[in-house]
Specification:
globular, about 40% helix, alpha/beta, six-stranded parallel sheet, four-stranded parallel sheet
Length: about 260
Amino acid sequence: MDENKQPIGFFDSGVGGTSIWKEVNALLPHENTIYLADSKNAPYGLKSKEEIIALSIKNTEFLLEQNCKLIVVACNTATTNAIDELREKFSVPFIGIEPAIKPAALQSETHKIGILATKGTLNSELFHEKAKTYTDVQIIEQIGHGLVQLIENGDMDSPEMAELLENYLQPMIEQNIDYLVLGCSHYPYLIPQIRKIIPSKITIIDSGEAVAKQTKNILAQQNMLNNSTEPGNNAFYSNSDIEVLRTILNKKEKVFYLDF
């Protein structure tokens, strides 16, 4: 197979990384893609670093078996806990995703930003290294307990979701944040609900667009861009209920159950 036509691989602890996939697909519509939702093991944010590394290696091995030319780790928790090990073990290029603290910190006028993320991301060494470089900004951290599970269950618009978000966001609002960083690839799907709670003056930032641009840059640098003029072929795999994944995606996308 022509290396340029080989697919871009994506993996996440579930359906959330499709928010990243959508950004990459919008920027690179001619690329073939394969997405793996490890929903059976979601959420990664409650697992140990060793468990996250083991799952990330397993996911990567599956994608490499499908001849992926580059892998997007479409999961903040997997990136912050496992990407160094993945890069050391495999020769394929990896694109990671981490909370977009930098643009929020540089643009904040109140010098207070909020970050909503998983326990695994907020407790990671990589996150702490990045966060401590912005000494003039107060970073108000909040673990999004229960949010990923509700999204994975298809309960994004449930009263329980609204109550959790209210409890997590209200303290940040009271502390006068002007930027809210979404530190989990599942959370962009909650933006409509978040917008109902936070004032319009608070800017919401996620990592999707930056990841898409970085993916394009790396493919271009390594001469691996697909030069086809046809729309790419996309395949999605889940080891749990595929209907949740199918609902989040355009109905024409191919979704398969994977006993994985």
